[in-house]
Design brief:
Layout (H helix, E strand, L loop, with lengths): L5 E12 L5 E7 L7 E2 L2 E3 L6 H13 L1 E15 L4 E14 L9 E5 L3 H4 L5 H12 L5 E2 L17 E5 L2 E8 L4 E5 L13 H5 L3 E5 L9 E2 L7 H15 L4 E6 L1 H12 L4 E7 L12 H13 L4 H7 L9 H8 L9 H5 L13 H11 L6 E6 L8 H8 L9 E3 L6 H19 L5
Parallel strand pairs: 1-6, 11-12, 11-14, 14-15, 15-16, 16-17
Antiparallel strand pairs: 1-2, 1-4, 2-3, 2-7, 5-6, 8-13, 9-10, 10-12
Helix pairs in contact: 5-6, 6-11, 8-9
């Protein structure tokens, strides 16, 4: 007897986090079996991926706008003429859709009650969802992969590493000495696209996306984001990849988090490249430009990403509409922007703010830092103005390198002068060979 054909279907297991911090799952009524409660599921249409189908079915059958993340399991249903293969995904509910099958009823249940409420064939999925959510503290979002298709100047393969339950994305190009490039607010590894090919021609270049940014997972809740969380995720990523003898390239928040790790695990880092960032310890007032930027971010909440990128350029007219869209690509809905909205508010402003004490310890370590350090600030960034002087005065090793200012660039100097910066970094690495 010939094998039966396999019909692919995909489904969503919609969930939400209550005000009490508990998770609930959403069930809908089944049409074929009266009084039966199931998860939304449907046929994979031509050209669709399984996650796309799961997201579509979540909307059409339950009326919920969902963000699909991890696969929970696969069920094979044997029919007389075919095998129906159902693949289910965790799906965070982030809103409602207008057009859905309103004849279906909906029912939210605590996670522990769901296995008993669904037909036996669905119970493995219910148990898998229960186990998956037991490892989560917050609501996890994942930007659909199709948002990153055909971005201009960004041909790099995607790499992923799961750290503390969230999937982090990173670029990994070239071979040789290890260079790690850290972005800041509200950008992602796309900011380094002009530098990566130049650096990767001679070295191994890695550029991670912090949680909440780029192709990395995001949290729905703002309180999921903290200085400590970002520090822990980056440290976990460095450990998972066992990266050593790193030339660390940092800008904006990448500098705050990267330099904190330099202070905590100095033996991991061979060289530092410090660009348009700061060392906020709560001892000194921030620049007026930063205070205005922080107030702007706090007031808006739903951060206008493209506007922020343009505001941070000396010559925004040089950025094409397609490149500007690429900075917005990680954020298909306002729900994905919690990390970007809260990051400016996490900068330590007072001595007792979270992270301030750690920044003071970092400052003490840097005051005795003897490994090669290159300070590269632009001439057109009011946010970090004066930072180059601070770092060159503080870090003994920085005084051994030439004083270089990147002309004609704003806050996002990698965007405007990426090729020039990459050339400076290659020269820096060449004149400071590693000592074993």
């Amino acid at each position: 007897m010939p094998d039966k054909p396999i019909h692919l279907k995909a489904g969503a297991v919609p969930y939400r986090r209550t005000a009490a911090g508990e998770f609930e799952l959403l069930l809908i009524t089944a049409r074929e079996v009266p009084d039966s409660w199931i998860f939304p599921v449907g046929t994979v249409e031509p050209g669709e991926t399984l996650p796309q189908t799961a997201a579509r079915e979540g909307g059409e059958e339950s009326g919920c706008l969902v963000s699909v993340t991890d696969q929970l399991g696969v069920i094979d249903l044997e029919k007389p003429d075919a095998t129906h293969r159902l693949t289910f995904f965790a799906a965070a509910v982030i809103g409602e859709v207008d057009d859905w099958e309103t004849d279906r009823q909906r029912r939210w249940l605590p996670v522990a009650d769901v296995p008993a409420a669904v037909p036996g064939v669905f119970r493995p999925i219910a148990h898998a969802a229960q186990q998956w959510l037991s490892r989560q503290t917050y609501t996890l979002l994942r930007t659909p992969e199709e948002r990153f298709a055909h971005l201009p100047g960004y041909p790099f393969a995607a790499h992923y590493q799961t750290i503390h339950g969230a999937r982090l994305h990173y670029v990994d190009e070239g071979a040789g000495e290890t260079i790690v490039c850290l972005h800041g607010e509200p950008s992602w590894s796309y900011l380094y696209r002009k530098m990566i090919p130049i650096l990767a021609a001679q070295h191994r270049v890695l550029a991670p996306d912090f949680p909440g940014f780029g192709r990395s997972d995001k949290f729905l809740e703002r309180d999921a984001y903290s200085f400590q969380m970002h520090r822990d995720m980056l440290a976990g990523w460095l450990d998972a990849l066992n990266l050593q003898q790193i030339t660390l390239v940092m800008q904006d928040w990448g500098g705050l988090i990267g330099l904190r790790l330099v202070g905590e695990m100095p033996d991991r880092f061979a060289r530092l490249v410090i660009m348009n960032t700061g060392l906020p310890t709560g001892d000194m007032p921030m620049t007026d430009a930063f205070e205005k930027w922080r107030d702007f971010a706090a007031r808006l909440g739903n951060l206008p990403i493209k506007r922020v990128i343009r505001m941070g350029l000396a010559h925004p007219e040089n950025l094409s509409p397609a490149e500007l869209d690429a900075y917005e690509a990680p954020f298909p809905h306002a729900a994905y922007k919690a990390g970007a909205a809260v990051w400016p508010l996490l900068v330590p402003m007072r001595r007792d703010d979270p992270g301030a004490a750690e920044m003071r310890r970092t400052r003490a370590v840097l005051s005795e830092w003897r490994r090669p350090t290159l300070v590269l600030f632009s001439d057109g960034d009011p946010i970090t103005r004066g930072g180059a002087r601070l770092f060159r005065k503080l870090i003994p090793a920085a005084q051994a390198q030439p004083e270089i200012t990147i002309p004609g660039a704003g806050h996002f100097l990698q965007e405007e002068k990426g090729e020039e910066i990459a050339a400076h970094i290659l020269s820096f690495i060449s004149r400071t060979p590693l000592t074993l």
